[in-house]
Amino acid sequence: MSIFHKARPLQGQRALVTGANSGIGAAVAEALAEAGAKVMINYLEGRDNAEQVAERIRVKEGQAMIFQADVSQENQVESMFDVMVGYWGGIDILINNAGLQQDAALVDMTLEQWNKVISVNLTGQFLCAREATRHFLQRGIVPELSCSVGKIICMSSVHDVIPWAGHVNYAASKGGVSMLMKTLAQELARHKIRVNGISPGAIKTPINLEARDTPEEVEALLKLIPYTRVGEPEDIARAVVWLASDESDYITGATLYVDGGMTLYPGFDNVG
Ligand code: NAD
User: Fold this and answer.
1) Where do the domains of the chain lie, and which CATH numbers do they carry?
2) Residue 272 clears pLDDT 60, i.e. is over it
3) Is the CB of 206 under 6 A from ligand 1?
4) Does 115 contact ligand 1 (Cβ within 6 A)?
């Protein structure tokens, strides 16, 4: 007998991906659907992109719906979960992915920039995790779907451990996500809810376009990456599917660094 559970490991499960109309979230939504999940694609702006992600899923005979909500707004988050549970009868997987940067040197950073990044990147993950957990607990375990009651995956960053000068709001938010994730994992494990984190390194998405504008900038970036390539959203998506599936049952409170070895820096020199 194989130790692997299923060819489509998420068959019949229902997943919500926040910020899924772009970058990593879009790739994650498509990969979850390919693994058999129905996917709600959350977006804030850019409805057309959200529709396109949903369409790409439907073309491959997957199921998807889109929902506009600001993850930092409690009432919008509650409505999003109500709609999802209303349509699909529940939720099995939450991917807390939505995030943004508003960079400035400390002396120039406004309170508004600080609050904005903390409220989307950290408070947004708290609000969605709380809502998902309420639904997980109401429903209990469904053995045909998964041996867990629910799975939450928190998108963090290598900057949850590497300080990032000029980005104090972002680094603080991701450090917070790391502790949010571990504390929830500890609190919810006895309910058979698994909570894990993924910390991407440099992945090609709109969030860091400016840092990859010129060949010189890309070269500078590659000096930080032992694996000598910038990551693709699909690198993250594959890890998410595994962490959401029963293949990773017994893993909770862990952070998977999907970063081509970036967190092995310093003590590394790609030039030599
Ligand atoms: P992206 O800009 O393509 O995606 C971010 C998504 O979040 C977008 O869809 C955006 O609309 C959405 N979003 C922003 N504010 C929102 C809000 N208030 N409510 C709902 N959605 C909102 O960038 P990405 O790189 O795909 O980022 C996805 C996640 O990965 C983020 O949490 C980011 O911090 C993290 N991350 C990215 C990298 C990288 O190199 N790309 C590295 C480390 C971590």
Assistant:
1) 14-202+231-265 (3.40.50.720)
2) no
3) yes
4) no
Q: Whose CA is nearest to atom 31 of ligand 1?
A: 99
**Using one digit for the tens of pLDDT, what is the confidence trace for 66-115?**
999 999 999 999 999 999 999 999 999 999 999 999 999 999 999 999 99
Query: Helices 74-88 and 124-139: crossing angle, nearest 10°?
Result: 30
Element (H, E) at 215: helix 215-222
Residue 240: phi, psi to the nearest 5? -65, -45
Question: If we measure between CA atoms, which residue out of 153, 146, 161 comes closest to residue 196?
Answer: 153
Residue 79 corresponds to which tokens in the numbers above?
Answer: 């409505």
pLDDT tens for 112-141 read: 999 999 999 999 999 999 999 999 999 999
CA of 205 to the centre of ligand 1 (A): 9
- The pTM of this model reads 0.97
